[in-house]
Amino acid sequence: MDKPLVYKGRGSISNTAGRFEKQDSVAIDDGWGSLDAELPPLKTEVLVDSSKSVITYNDSPDVPFDRSINPYRGCEHGCIYCFARPSHAYLGLSPGLDFESRILVKPNAAQLLRQELGKRSYQCATLALGTNTDPYQPLERQHKIMRSILEVLAETRHPVSIVTKSALVERDIDLLSAMAQQGLVSVYLSITTLDRQLARTLEPRAAAPQRRLQALAALRAAGIPAGVLIAPVIPALNDYELEAIAKAAHLAGAQSAEYIFLRLPLEVADLFEEWLNQHYPLKAQHVLNLVKEARGGKVYNPAYSQRMTGTGNYADLIAQRFRLIAKRLQLDTGLPAPRTDLFRKPEAGGQMGFDFFT
What we know:
Blueprint: E1 45-48, E2 55-57, E3 67-69, E4 72-73, H1 97-101, E5 102-105, H2 109-117, E6 127-129, H3 140-143, H4 145-156, E7 160-164, H5 173-181, E8 185-191, H6 196-202, H7 209-221, E9 226-233, H8 242-251, E10 257-261, H9 267-279, H10 284-293, H11 312-328
């Protein structure tokens, strides 16, 4: 029989090959108890991403930005619901355990960014960070790629928006605070649940929920525009926490709140179902039935007008609840859009001008 690959500190319980691979392998018990032993820790492997550019552009009508940067491909946080997991298949890797244990880093991201911002054709608009994988995931403590990117953006007075589940964002409060004084930055802390036990299995290497709230409070104390992203809302698992998360974020100083309904594109659907059956077997079918109800009878509907919030009675109820609590707490106005009129091309030597802080 197949055995789930339950590694401590990892989200996925399988490492099935991506959709482009012709072969796959699974661990099978041969009847002699060969799989009975506890699995050893799964170490993270760091690979170098040799991409020649760092800014990714999109024309999606349901996202508020047209460009983003992802310093890392793959994410150690291991969130089982992460919609970015299928992107690992393009690398010949599994969207399962490979996604959270084989991470590609872009060590020259800041240098590439400087080159792209310096092009004569470049037109300034807000850069989004944290839209695919978390720029403040654990590897950032060592590699400091996000820090180097922010230094370039601060030097050039380039607007940026950040989404993260990590308290490591506090490390860069000095840069973010200076940029906030010029209206160049906004930050959203993504909070899925306030239940520590659920968070430990759902997003095993992300900061604990209370720690994220503390980071949110620290950002606000430093004068940085910050809000909460309640994501994803999962039927029958964390949906009852919608109001509680919004209230906790409000007490921490959040200025705005947004939410995203659970998205299960491509391989994520099977990975999430495996996870449900392993950790919440009695709820699994109920959760999936509600997901399908909000997706027109399917596990996922990628239509631009529906993928973020879903449709139908259940999805409408979530939307109404969110609107009410956001209005009651005055979290429904959104964060100020970062300014774009202060941008200046990077200097050839990469030296920050003396007038930055004036």
